Amino acid sequence: MEKIIPDPGERIKPDIREKALEHGFSFLFDEELVMLILGSGTRGLPVEYMAERIVDVLNDCDFEDAVEKLLCVRGVGQGKALAVAAALELGRRRSCHLRAPIKTPFDIVPFLKNYAVCDKEHFLLVTLNGGHEIIQIHVITVGTLNKTLIHPREVFSVAMRDNAAAIIVSHNHPSGNCEPSEEDIEVTETLRKVSVIMGIELLDHVIVSRESYFSFLENKILSPAKRGQAAQTA
Fold it and tell me: Which domains does the chain have, with CATH numbers?
Protein backbone atom coordinates (compact mmCIF):
# COMPACT_ATOMS: atom_id res chain seq x y z
CA MET A 1 0.00 0.00 0.00
CA GLU A 2 1.36 3.39 -0.97
CA LYS A 3 2.24 5.52 2.01
CA ILE A 4 0.45 8.86 1.99
CA ILE A 5 2.75 11.67 3.08
CA PRO A 6 0.88 14.59 4.62
CA ASP A 7 1.41 18.12 3.38
CA PRO A 8 4.46 19.21 5.41
CA GLY A 9 3.34 22.83 5.33
CA GLU A 10 0.03 22.02 7.01
CA ARG A 11 1.76 19.78 9.54
CA ILE A 12 4.45 22.26 10.61
CA LYS A 13 3.26 25.81 10.12
CA PRO A 14 0.48 26.09 12.73
CA ASP A 15 2.96 25.52 15.57
CA ILE A 16 5.37 28.08 14.14
CA ARG A 17 2.59 30.58 13.55
CA GLU A 18 1.48 30.23 17.15
CA LYS A 19 5.04 30.66 18.39
CA ALA A 20 5.52 33.80 16.28
CA LEU A 21 2.23 35.31 17.45
CA GLU A 22 2.89 34.53 21.10
CA HIS A 23 6.59 35.34 21.36
CA GLY A 24 7.42 37.46 18.31
CA PHE A 25 9.57 36.74 15.26
CA SER A 26 12.82 37.23 17.18
CA PHE A 27 11.95 34.06 19.14
CA LEU A 28 12.08 31.88 16.02
CA PHE A 29 15.11 30.05 14.67
CA ASP A 30 16.30 30.95 11.16
CA GLU A 31 14.91 27.68 9.82
CA GLU A 32 11.49 28.49 11.29
CA LEU A 33 11.48 31.92 9.70
CA VAL A 34 12.26 30.32 6.36
CA MET A 35 9.41 27.84 6.87
CA LEU A 36 7.00 30.76 7.28
CA ILE A 37 8.28 32.25 4.02
CA LEU A 38 8.02 28.97 2.10
CA GLY A 39 4.54 28.17 3.31
CA SER A 40 4.92 24.44 2.64
CA GLY A 41 7.23 21.80 1.29
CA THR A 42 6.46 19.39 -1.52
CA ARG A 43 5.12 15.84 -1.47
CA GLY A 44 7.89 13.66 -0.09
CA LEU A 45 10.07 16.65 0.82
CA PRO A 46 9.26 18.15 4.24
CA VAL A 47 9.41 21.90 4.63
CA GLU A 48 11.86 21.47 7.53
CA TYR A 49 14.37 19.83 5.17
CA MET A 50 14.03 22.62 2.61
CA ALA A 51 14.38 25.29 5.29
CA GLU A 52 17.54 23.72 6.70
CA ARG A 53 19.14 23.49 3.26
CA ILE A 54 18.15 27.08 2.46
CA VAL A 55 19.70 28.39 5.68
CA ASP A 56 22.89 26.48 4.90
CA VAL A 57 23.01 28.10 1.45
CA LEU A 58 22.38 31.59 2.83
CA ASN A 59 25.16 31.14 5.38
CA ASP A 60 27.62 30.26 2.64
CA CYS A 61 26.88 32.75 -0.14
CA ASP A 62 26.69 36.46 -0.87
CA PHE A 63 23.26 38.00 -1.34
CA GLU A 64 23.94 38.65 -5.04
CA ASP A 65 24.32 34.89 -5.61
CA ALA A 66 21.41 33.85 -3.40
CA VAL A 67 18.79 33.11 -6.07
CA GLU A 68 21.21 31.10 -8.20
CA LYS A 69 22.37 29.06 -5.19
CA LEU A 70 18.84 28.54 -3.85
CA LEU A 71 17.70 27.11 -7.16
CA CYS A 72 20.20 24.32 -6.62
CA VAL A 73 18.39 23.20 -3.47
CA ARG A 74 16.16 20.21 -4.05
CA GLY A 75 12.50 21.25 -4.17
CA VAL A 76 13.18 24.98 -4.41
CA GLY A 77 11.80 26.43 -7.60
CA GLN A 78 11.96 29.96 -8.92
CA GLY A 79 8.97 31.12 -6.87
CA LYS A 80 10.38 29.97 -3.52
CA ALA A 81 13.89 31.21 -4.34
CA LEU A 82 12.57 34.66 -5.24
CA ALA A 83 10.36 34.78 -2.13
CA VAL A 84 13.34 34.10 0.14
CA ALA A 85 15.53 36.64 -1.70
CA ALA A 86 12.77 39.26 -1.54
CA ALA A 87 12.41 38.74 2.21
CA LEU A 88 16.16 39.19 2.62
CA GLU A 89 16.12 42.41 0.60
CA LEU A 90 13.17 43.80 2.55
CA GLY A 91 14.95 43.03 5.81
CA ARG A 92 18.13 44.66 4.54
CA ARG A 93 16.27 47.84 3.58
CA ARG A 94 14.50 48.01 6.92
CA SER A 95 17.61 47.47 9.03
CA CYS A 96 20.41 49.13 7.04
CA HIS A 97 20.13 52.26 9.22
CA LEU A 98 21.01 50.52 12.48
CA ARG A 99 24.05 52.07 14.19
CA ALA A 100 24.74 54.33 11.21
CA PRO A 101 26.53 57.48 12.45
CA ILE A 102 24.80 60.80 11.74
CA LYS A 103 27.27 63.67 11.53
CA THR A 104 25.47 66.01 9.12
CA PRO A 105 21.79 66.51 8.17
CA PHE A 106 22.38 64.86 4.80
CA ASP A 107 23.58 61.67 6.50
CA ILE A 108 20.04 60.84 7.62
CA VAL A 109 18.36 61.49 4.24
CA PRO A 110 19.15 58.12 2.56
CA PHE A 111 17.45 56.29 5.43
CA LEU A 112 14.27 58.35 5.00
CA LYS A 113 13.94 58.09 1.22
CA ASN A 114 11.55 55.14 1.27
CA TYR A 115 9.04 57.38 3.07
CA ALA A 116 9.59 60.23 0.61
CA VAL A 117 7.58 58.42 -2.07
CA CYS A 118 4.53 57.86 0.17
CA ASP A 119 1.25 59.51 -0.83
CA LYS A 120 0.47 60.43 2.80
CA GLU A 121 2.60 62.39 5.22
CA HIS A 122 4.51 60.20 7.65
CA PHE A 123 5.89 61.81 10.80
CA LEU A 124 9.03 59.93 11.81
CA LEU A 125 11.20 59.80 14.89
CA VAL A 126 14.86 58.85 14.58
CA THR A 127 16.39 57.92 17.93
CA LEU A 128 20.16 58.14 18.41
CA ASN A 129 22.65 57.07 21.07
CA GLY A 130 25.33 59.25 22.65
CA GLY A 131 27.57 58.79 19.62
CA HIS A 132 24.73 59.99 17.36
CA GLU A 133 24.36 56.53 15.84
CA ILE A 134 20.86 55.51 14.78
CA ILE A 135 19.07 53.29 17.25
CA GLN A 136 15.78 53.03 15.36
CA ILE A 137 13.41 54.86 13.00
CA HIS A 138 9.80 54.97 14.19
CA VAL A 139 6.59 56.03 12.44
CA ILE A 140 4.73 58.23 14.94
CA THR A 141 1.71 59.28 12.87
CA VAL A 142 0.40 59.01 9.32
CA GLY A 143 -1.64 61.83 7.83
CA THR A 144 -1.44 65.59 7.47
CA LEU A 145 1.06 67.09 9.89
CA ASN A 146 -0.77 69.02 12.58
CA LYS A 147 0.41 70.28 15.94
CA THR A 148 -2.66 68.75 17.53
CA LEU A 149 -1.76 65.32 16.10
CA ILE A 150 1.96 65.39 16.93
CA HIS A 151 1.96 65.36 20.70
CA PRO A 152 5.36 65.55 22.42
CA ARG A 153 4.28 62.70 24.70
CA GLU A 154 4.16 60.32 21.72
CA VAL A 155 7.59 61.39 20.53
CA PHE A 156 9.46 61.40 23.82
CA SER A 157 7.87 58.27 25.28
CA VAL A 158 9.32 56.37 22.33
CA ALA A 159 12.67 58.16 22.70
CA MET A 160 12.82 57.20 26.37
CA ARG A 161 11.92 53.60 25.56
CA ASP A 162 14.91 53.49 23.18
CA ASN A 163 17.09 55.13 25.84
CA ALA A 164 17.95 57.80 23.27
CA ALA A 165 20.44 60.57 23.96
CA ALA A 166 19.23 62.61 20.99
CA ILE A 167 16.52 62.58 18.33
CA ILE A 168 15.85 63.75 14.80
CA VAL A 169 12.27 64.19 13.60
CA SER A 170 11.26 64.03 9.98
CA HIS A 171 8.26 63.97 7.70
CA ASN A 172 7.65 63.74 3.97
CA HIS A 173 5.93 66.25 1.70
CA PRO A 174 4.04 64.32 -1.01
CA SER A 175 3.65 67.58 -2.98
CA GLY A 176 7.40 67.60 -3.63
CA ASN A 177 7.89 71.06 -2.09
CA CYS A 178 10.13 70.67 0.96
CA GLU A 179 9.69 74.21 2.30
CA PRO A 180 8.31 74.03 5.87
CA SER A 181 4.84 75.33 6.61
CA GLU A 182 3.96 77.46 9.62
CA GLU A 183 2.53 74.29 11.16
CA ASP A 184 5.87 72.49 10.63
CA ILE A 185 7.72 75.31 12.37
CA GLU A 186 5.29 75.41 15.30
CA VAL A 187 5.51 71.65 15.82
CA THR A 188 9.30 71.82 15.75
CA GLU A 189 9.41 74.65 18.28
CA THR A 190 7.13 72.75 20.64
CA LEU A 191 9.30 69.64 20.39
CA ARG A 192 12.44 71.73 20.91
CA LYS A 193 11.10 73.18 24.16
CA VAL A 194 10.14 69.75 25.47
CA SER A 195 13.51 68.31 24.44
CA VAL A 196 15.25 70.78 26.74
CA ILE A 197 13.08 69.72 29.67
CA MET A 198 13.51 66.02 28.89
CA GLY A 199 17.26 66.24 28.40
CA ILE A 200 17.00 64.49 25.01
CA GLU A 201 18.46 66.82 22.40
CA LEU A 202 16.47 67.58 19.25
CA LEU A 203 19.19 67.67 16.61
CA ASP A 204 17.12 68.44 13.52
CA HIS A 205 13.81 68.30 11.70
CA VAL A 206 14.25 67.03 8.15
CA ILE A 207 11.53 67.29 5.50
CA VAL A 208 11.97 64.93 2.56
CA SER A 209 10.43 64.58 -0.89
CA ARG A 210 11.23 62.46 -3.92
CA GLU A 211 13.84 64.89 -5.22
CA SER A 212 15.12 66.95 -2.29
CA TYR A 213 15.12 67.61 1.43
CA PHE A 214 14.96 70.53 3.87
CA SER A 215 16.92 70.61 7.13
CA PHE A 216 15.87 72.97 9.91
CA LEU A 217 19.45 72.83 11.19
CA GLU A 218 21.06 73.68 7.84
CA ASN A 219 18.60 76.55 7.35
CA LYS A 220 19.25 77.86 10.88
CA ILE A 221 15.66 77.44 12.01
CA LEU A 222 17.02 75.03 14.60
CA SER A 223 20.64 76.03 15.15
CA PRO A 224 23.15 74.69 17.67
CA ALA A 225 23.37 78.18 19.18
CA LYS A 226 19.61 78.30 19.68
CA ARG A 227 19.64 74.91 21.36
CA GLY A 228 22.42 76.05 23.67
CA GLN A 229 20.60 79.26 24.57
CA ALA A 230 17.46 77.30 25.31
CA ALA A 231 19.35 74.99 27.66
CA GLN A 232 20.77 77.97 29.56
CA THR A 233 17.44 79.71 29.93
CA ALA A 234 15.41 76.59 30.75
Answer: 8-95 (no CATH), 105-233 (3.40.140.10)
